[in-house]
Amino acid sequence: MTTPRDRLIVALDVQDATTARAMVDRLAGHVGMFKVGTQIFTAAGPDFVREVIARGEKVFLDLKFHDIPNTVAGAVSSAGQLGVSLVDVHALGGKDMMEAAVGALPATGIRLIAITILTSHEEETLGTIGVSGSVADSVRRLAVLSREAGADGVVASPQEVALVREACGPDFLIVTPGIRPVGSSRGDQSRTATPAAAVAAGADYIVVGRPILEATDPAAAADAIVRELTGR
Ligand code: C5P
């Protein structure tokens, strides 16, 4: 069974292993998973990922693989060996690439999700890279393609959760960043939702970075989000 705490993924967007380790110490037991993205992975590498997993925590390896199918399959296979729980690829890499990624997953314990359209893109910027139509149409098309390729789900902004849920059905995983608890600063996120609103719209997991990382008491900030998800 998925508990409200399981649904909370904290983005370890910090500069170095020492800072990340200190944050894991403070948050272990208060969140469901730690997201290791390109910033901390480039600084601290796979050893840091192994260390977090060795202490019994789950890791979402958010490296957004996008390469030829054979290379992405190799990268996903390495992620499987690290023991991460979630890994992602860019759906724009195409169906063959996603199928190769799915084929490289170990039999159990890891799920693969796809990035559709980055939330930093708008219709005009999509046009400049040759993608026509609205952002919503592209998100829907790429989510369906990801599901057809065998991916377990997608990353979707709060605004896209409902359309992905509608297009891909109830069992497709939706992981949602851009979460801002009531009263917290938006930072550079423009399309945001509260934790409860994102889950009510259909998100399975929420990704929260700065509202937890920059809190005076990160564990208390995480607990407050879990309480909000529990409805108390
Ligand atoms: O600090 P904040 O809560 O905005 O962090 C959100 C996290 O989710 C960051 O790690 C960011 O890279 C990631 N993310 C996002 N929008 C996406 C995909 C990932 O904000 N579309």
Characterization of the model:
The protein has 232 residues and is of the alpha/beta class. It has ten helices and eight strands. An eight-stranded parallel barrel has the order 1-2-3-4-5-6-7-8, surrounded by seven helices. Helix 4 (95-103) runs parallel beside helix 6 (135-149). The longest helix is centred in the first third of the chain and has 17 residues, at 38-54. It is globular and about 45 Å long. Bound molecules: cytidine-5'-monophosphate.
> How many E-type strands?
8
| Broad CATH class | Alpha Beta
Count of discrete alpha- or pi-helical segments spanning 4 or more residues: 10
CATH superfamily: Aldolase class I
Low-confidence stretches: none
Task: Give me the strand/helix succession.
Answer: EHEHEHEHEHHEHEHEHH
The biggest beta sheet is recorded as: 8 strands, parallel, barrel
Estimated radius of gyration: 17 Å
Distinct small-molecule ligands in the complex? cytidine-5'-monophosphate
CATH architecture: Alpha-Beta Barrel
* Approximate strand percentage: 15-25%
Mean pLDDT: 94
Brief overview:
The protein has 232 residues and is an alpha/beta fold. Helix content is 45%, strand content 16%. The protein has one domain (8-224): TIM Barrel, CATH 3.20.20.70.
